Amino acid sequence: MNSQPIVDQIPALRRYARVLTGDTWAADDLVQDTLERACSKWRLWSAGSDLRAWLFTVMHNLFANQMRRATRQGRGSTIDIDDVAHELVAPDANPGAALDLQRCLLRLPQDQRAVLLLVSLEDMSYAEVAQIMGVPIGTVMSRLSRARSRLQELLDAPARSTDPQPIVGTPLNPAIPLRRLK
User: Fold this and answer.
1) Are 30 and 62 in contact (CB under 8 A)?
2) Nearest 10 degrees: CA dihedral of 70, 76, 82, 86?
3) What is the mean pLDDT of the chain?
4) Residue 161 — very low, low, confident or very high, per pLDDT cuts 50/70/90?
5) Together in a domain, 88 and 167
6) How many domains does one find in the chain?
7) CA 91 to CA 88: how far, in whole Å?
């Protein structure tokens, strides 16, 4: 197997891993695990098929397995969102808008957030996303529609008071809930 096409996919894999895990270190570990699995199972990839979709499928399945394992083992902790707020803002962007978008994305259910980001950020087709997530295309379309509607509702919500409210919602990594600590 020629490694160059795999190397070309690493930036996209890192973006998706960051969305799944919500943590730079965990994302890098997930990418490494994905690449190790891809190299050890390269015979399972059909030559001529979409390598990108296959790699994303491997990553999605690894992440799902890790989350199931973490849930069974009862792992979990709470982190203060203020401790990671600096990582949530793009350097060139308006910090308030980027942080608001990130908070809204955090409130989407994980399955809707993943579909939204794979279609919007990674520019994947519905069929590719369906293959990666192991669901029918109709489910992808439904999740995408619900994610877009909910995200729009969250972004259009009136500005909050200056008193910070607790953030309750679906974190990027369910094993690490994000909460505003008082």
Assistant:
1) yes
2) -20
3) 74
4) very low
5) yes
6) 2
7) 9
Domain that includes residue 41, residue range: 1-77
pLDDT of 135 above 90: yes
Q: Give the pLDDT confidence of 31-65 residue by residue, as tens digits.
A: 999 889 888 887 776 666 777 888 888 888 888 88
What whole-number distance in Å separates Cα of residue 118 and Cα of residue 47? 23
As a whole number of angstroms, the distance between CA 147 and CA 115 comes to 8
- Predicted confidence at residue 80, as pLDDT, reads 53
Rounded to the nearest 5 degrees, what angle is found at the Cα of 110, between the Cα atoms of 104 and 111? 120
What is the rounded radius of gyration, in angstroms, for the C-alpha atoms of the chain? 17
Query: Cβ distance 44 to 122 under 8 Å?
Result: no
Residues 94, 158 within the same domain: yes
